[in-house]
Amino acid sequence: MERLNKFLAHAGLGSRRHCDDLIASGRIRVDGVVSREMGARIDPQTARVEMDGQPVRAERNVYWLVYKPIGTLCTNHDPEGRPRAIDLVPHVGERVYTVGRLDEDSEGLLLLTNDGDLAFKLMHPRFGISKTYLVQVAGKPSNEDLQKLLEGVWLSDGHVKARRVKRLKSQGESTWLEIVLTEGKNREIRRMLAKLDHKVMRLKRIALGPIKLDRLRKGKCRKLKPEEVELLRKTLNRPPRADHPPGGPALVESRKTPSVRPPRPESRRESRKPEGPFHGRRHPL
Fold this sequence. Notes:
By secondary structure, this protein is an alpha+beta fold. It is built from 6 helices and 18 strands. Helix 1 (4-10) crosses helix 2 (16-24). The longest helix has 12 residues, at 226-237.
């Protein structure tokens, strides 16, 4: 059995709240009978659902990986008409939405889907799905600074901390870090580093759980393979790893890791080359 508003939302009629309004207004019939009950449940395999006399059929679940550029919004509605992540998948007929958010000034991996259950689990801290970022910060954070990220800092909306931190390399008066989170408050990394007096100059998400951005070009998208979707589901059902138990964050020193190349500043010439921080080399995650 499935909630009627969830069924309607998956059919592309709008958000669950909007579908509740459709139900309350008497526009929805189930097996020929008007349904006004909030929280009503149906069998999606056998129920005959109609809106304004027209049959309603649930959409199939779809899963798309996109590389969100800087300046693109993670919203389905913007009154100002700014670029949105869903504009990167104009060929997708289903009503998809972003799994979590990247702020307007950040770039990188986003999942778009209409699978609400999977999206909820991927974003809820209880399931501990890792989110991996490349971060360029002003200055040279000390080991003490990085340890503070692991121990956690207090923000206006609570105590937050990184799961893992690795110093990658220095670039002039800035430093590249790899930071792993298992929750995602609004602009969390930027606010954490600001507490330590290090401004974020560039932030790019390169992985969500086992799904990696790899060589996907900026502004492009691809459909997740069935085995990738299954791997996500298995990751959600997997108990915490013994080598990284809850409460055991890790600070990784760069001296013991292979050298890697964070993203280079863009230029016209470089824009013709494949996108990605490692220019065709697989990131050692």
